[in-house]
Amino acid sequence: MRSVRIGVDTGGTFTDVVAVDEQTGEILTTKTPSTPANPADGFMAGLGKLGEPEVASIVHGTTVATNRLLEDRIESLGFITTEGFEFVLEIARQSVPDGYGNSYFWVKPPRIVPVHLVKTVGGRLDHLGEEVRPFSEEQAVEVARWFRAKGITAIGVCFLHSYANPEHERRMREVLAREHPEAVVSLSSDVLREYREYERSVTTLVDAAVKPAMRGYLANLSGRLGRSFSVMKSNGGVLSAREVVNQPITTVLSGPAAGALGAALLAGTAGHTSVITLDGGGTSTDVAVVIDGEPSITTEGTIGRYPCKIPMIDIVTVGAGGGSIAWISPEGTLKVGPRSAGADPGPLCYGKGGTEVTVTDAHVFLGRIPPHLLGGEIPLDVDAARGGIEALADKLGLTPERTATGILEISAFNQSNAIRRLTVKRGLDVRDFPLVTFGGSGPLLACRLIDILGLPSVVVPRDPGNVSAFGLLTVDVKNDYVRTYVTRDLSLGKAVEIFHDLEHQAAEALDREGFSEPVHQRSADLRYFGQAYEVRVPAPAGEIDESWHEEVVSRFHDAHEKLYGYAYRDDPRHGVEWVNLRVSGIGPINRPVIPRLDKPGPGATSVRPVHFEETRDTPIHQRAALGPGATVSGPAVIEEYGSTIPVHPGFTAKVDEYGNVEISRD
């Protein structure tokens, strides 16, 4: 019996499954509709479609944590902080989105924990972790009993300067365990041992908020599988389910992170080391930038309206997927998204009770996708899509074709704005990057994005609907550790002490995962004295001596100049300040080998009416029948099991040696 490694990515509309045969390297793919009410049902249904192979390992990308935050489903959450700091969430950063010109219109959103569920405990540490006032055991017991009486079962604890010394937080956890044993507790010194009280508080509370749901989901899934499995993390690594339940916040961008990594590997194999990745699903579109084979990492990310300072792949998400709903604003203009019909009831053409026109309905009406999905497994109701488009067109006073085209145009501009946020606004020229587009709906607007953004080309990998699930099988086990130590004169002894401690933590965690010889990657956050924010640079491995110190500072000057256009390398008036020291512990895995496409498979070319500038009979190509070097000139449509590529007039699609379809302007 063959032995396979399996990746399962649960999206808002479909659950994608990829299996790699460990002996032959053969890659198998399939999809099944997601089950939002219980994502584990879709997970098990997807595995069932693979038959009964011998399973070596399973890696899972999940949206359980993300969806709770995006949908603001946060209940029964309490906060314990230092006496006198009960309003840290209310004060936040005193900043207004989009600048202070927005002050008249912006309504401050509710805090993640309302003031009446915030409690304080006496005790105080200074910024070096030295005790100024002792921890008040009496107040801690009183607070724990108050939360128990109120029925608050998820609690975040963030004491002032606990990044420097976690002792008071750990004593609070002991009191909660004794007085309120039903409570699920998150400590800021475990979640994010880094300074900036507001961000650390919110990150800790997000962890506490999603912990009960993630624990329940993973326990349910483990029971149904009857075996262990791993979960994708936002930082581009994986971790076993038994470990990730203790830090569920690390999974908040689980699926999108896998997509960016999978696309980076596929593009790099084909010779494109720096690309933009676009993952178009049924509910949303996720965009990332890959430079020299590595997706950009940030600790300034947000999920919904919550800042999360954990390391995560820098991804911008917009509500522009196949299920995005077209609607008319009170001013009478056509809008698309961010609301989505999701998997249930789905678009009108699904015939499952949907009542609103979606992007998918517009594609179906224009003939750009076939009258079925997944090779015929999901038949589409073309008449229902047509009826919805015609009704919307009547309200707008436009022709149905113009209305459907307008829906797709708005969706394309929504996606292009997400790409600009990651490129133009960060000093990158979008015209320098090919776009790698994947996901079920990702390739559908490829030609329009080339025109809107001036892209050199768009690359569509094989089985684009399953790239995120494939990405799960390309990922190392990875944990991140950080320690704040703010100083203008970092002594070598202190650097050795902190890095040794962080590397020891990383090694212990990876040893539990079965890695006896982990790889450690060091980095540091530095800034010029007086600046408010830092620049992260990689720090060399090996001995920490004077040359090591000089190398890190030199890398900081280089990075600052690249980011902001200037540096104070030779100006003694501007000293360099060290802020955070970081270690990533990595357990390497064997990545799948990307096979070359040797010859075309079966599949005949057919014809059906498709509307681009006009409606006319258009060649429909089966992607499996296109061998290396094959060329398709628009207008045409290329179809496969999990996705479709409309090739507009004036564009050409070419197949490379790995089976990628590269689209460019004639």
From TrEMBL:
Domain of life: Bacteria
Positions of the Hydantoinase/oxoprolinase N-terminal domain: 5-178
Domain Hydantoinase A/oxoprolinase: 200-480
Family annotation (InterPro entries): ACX-like_C (IPR049517), ATPase_NBD (IPR043129), Hydant_A_N (IPR008040), Hydantoinase_A (IPR002821), Oxoprolinase-like (IPR045079)
Annotated Acetophenone carboxylase-like C-terminal domain residues: 497-658
Name of the protein: Hydantoinase/oxoprolinase family protein
Species of the source: Nonomuraea salmonea
